[in-house]
Amino acid sequence: IDINLEGEIAGVILDSPDMQKRVKQLDYGVDFNGYFNAGVMLINNDEWRKNNVTQESLSMINSGKIFRYADQDVLNILLNGKVKYLQRKFNNKTTLSVNFDAEAKNIDNTIIMHYVTPNKPWYKIFKARYFDRYFNVSPWKNNRRFFAPSPSEIRLKAKREISGKNYSIGVYHYFCYLISKVFRLRF
Fold this sequence. Notes:
Elements: E1 10-14, H1 17-24, E2 36-43, H2 45-50, H3 53-61, H4 70-78, E3 83-85, E4 92-94, E5 113-115, H5 129-135, H6 151-163, H7 167-183
Parallel strand pairs: 1-3, 4-5
Antiparallel strand pairs: 1-2
Helix pairs in contact: 3-4, 6-7
């Protein structure tokens, strides 16, 4: 990716319209010029260091003030007016659930897919075929991937499969749930 940040501290992607509305209600004494999602940023290291962003961020976080969206709020405050806005394809946010496959709806023109919930694609229980495809050709392809982050996710998967009349898959997942719950095992 070759993007000229034109002297700005970072390249960022605007957060969702819903988030833009929510942050207007926060009282930080800053008029945000486009609140961005800090999960994916292209950083101009020279400008970042020159503006002492790391130290300033840590000072704000450790100040005792509560920031509703934690480090994301702090970075939006510090970098306000000092960023270049990039296309959404560089931070295409999606969610994962045992109940649906949102990843497939968000793939058109995506360069970076950002999984924004605690449900991460490295757990096998979540449908994440695009992650799987790239994981399987990555340097980490031989690393162990756990089945689920918690027994409750396995139970949800069992319920979904049974309600969809996939009884054998549902019973299998329910059995895995019981084993992981009773014996505190991770699959």
